[in-house]
Amino acid sequence: MSESGAGDQAVAMDRMYRVTRHVYDVTRAYYLLGRDRMLAKVITNPSTATLEVGCGTARNLIKLARRPEPGLLCGLDASQEMLDTAAASITRAGVPAAGHERIRLRQGLAEALDAKSMFGRDEPFDTIFFSYCLSMVPTWPGAIEAALANLKTGGHLVIVDFWDQRDLPDVFAAGLKKWLSMFHVHYRPEVHDALAALGTSGRADVAFESVAKRYAYIASLTKR
Q: What are 68-106's pLDDT values in tens digits?
């Protein structure tokens, strides 16, 4: 993506979240299902480094930070407005500080992820996760490739996102799809297919589990 295109995307995200960031966690709790199940798959200890791409208000990172051994926690988001809310939420939560930062937050696009330039890391991450993020990223193939490039061999990529709603009532699925489109969220069944293809290609070991039938899925990948 060109520099101007990247700037446009960040501006669009800021515009969308300028107001909704203040009520994001309350409103999303009702339909972003499976997030805590996904977090349970994230292994942390004092030596691990974990990154959430599309960290939003830092809801997920704060939950991880409250573990006895959270390790290093980092968050990347395209919207500086969201990151401002995340920083305030982290301070209010009173999670323990690691060095001079409780959680490292950086502004940037998912497909431009670089552990060194963004987070000062010479080593790749142990775990990278996306929580209902890829359904909002038009350039999702680049986001997945960047995550894999910044993940250590044997590291984990964990994703929770909307599935295809195939086994849910048509009226429900159509209504949900229309409503989510108002927030630039789109069903991308091709993401599920691309993740499965990583398994068949030998680049990763891939496993899926459903959330509320085919409402959403959790994908767990181990990089080979």
A: 999 999 999 999 999 999 999 999 999 876 556 789 999
Rounded Cα distance between 220 and 113, Å, is: 20
Q: Where are the domains of the chain?
A: 3-223
Its CATH class, for the domain covering 3-223, is alpha beta
Check: CB of residue 158 under 8 Å from CB of residue 127. Answer: yes
- Could you tell me what percentage of the chain is helix, strand and coil, using 3-state DSSP and rounding each to the nearest 5? 40, 25, 35
Identify the burial level of 116 via C-beta atoms within 10 angstroms of its C-beta, where 0-12 means exposed, 13-18 middle and 19 or more buried: exposed
**Tokens found for residue 63:** 């939950």
H-helix or E-strand spanning residue 50: strand 49-53
Pairing outcome for strands 204-211 and 125-131: unpaired
Taking only the tens place, the pLDDT of each residue in 101-152 is 789 999 999 999 999 999 999 999 999 999 999 988 889 999 999 999 999 9
